[in-house]
Amino acid sequence: MAIKNIALKTKTDMPQQNKTARSGIELYLKRIFALMFGAVALTAVASYLTIWGGWFIYLINLHTGNFTALYYILLFGGLALSIWAQVRAFSFKPATGALLLALYSVLMGIVMTPLLVAVLTVNPASILFAFILAAVMFACMALFGYKTVKDLSFLGIFLMMGMIGLILVGLASFIWPGILGGTFGTIVCFIGVLVFALFTAYDMQNLKRAYAVTADDHQRNQLAVLGALHLYISFIAMFQYLLSLFNRN
């Protein structure tokens, strides 16, 4: 009789438990996307202020077209910061992690200005078009990653290899600028969009699973900051590759 009563109580409590679980993960996802879109907004503001203030002239030599030492310091400093923040994500307080995310997003906004200035002189409408398309692709892939029952973990090694390849090609382009010209450059842009679109779905599924196995609220807050950083990187990368793709000429 006691077992029967427990079973009946469990069945009665299940809707409430499911409701609590849904509200918990909804709050978790809201926190992730609030941090991520806040970082995107900071990037936009940093880019605007850098262009409006004319400070981009310190990032590129207008006579030779070459990047300055400051540009490389900010670029590789931002890259190092993002790697360090991901490695140490669960050692920081959530507020500290959010601050590092904000700092990284500002650095990215400054580093993006040479590309944006070049585009503004020839095809300014493509910035809005690339942003909207990146946002739509991001939303679709994030929703797919959250809803799909297919295990996307097999993508991990391929996406990591693809990202490393894209980084190496980007580094090579600093030494041989012509490497990204013509058909090869177009292919690189397409691959970049594909890799980071798939990364969006892959990360969303991992964030959903991580929430399910993490009971501590402090760790969930740390995970939310880390997830926001991953999704921010994917969104910004898609935007940049789309913008480059629309301005190949």
- Secondary-structure element order, N to C: HHHHHHHH
Number of strand segments: 0
Domain count, please report it. Answer: 1
Question: What general outline do the C-alpha atoms trace?
Answer: globular
Instruction: Determine the structural class based on helices, strands and strand pairing.
Output: mainly alpha
**C-alpha Rg, in Å?**
21 Å
Percent in helix: over 70%
Alpha carbon gap, first and last residue: 78 Å
Helix tally? 8
Q: Give start-end ranges of low-pLDDT stretches.
A: 1-14
Strand content: under 5%
Major beta-sheet overview: none
* Overall mean pLDDT: 86
Description:
This protein has helices spanning 2-52, 69-87, 94-111, 113-122, 125-147, 155-175, 182-213, 217-246. By secondary structure, it is mostly helical. It has one domain. The longest helix is centred in the N-terminal third of the chain and has 51 residues, at 2-52. It is globular and about 55 Å long. The protein starts with a helix and ends with a helix. The model is unreliable at 1-14 (pLDDT under 50).
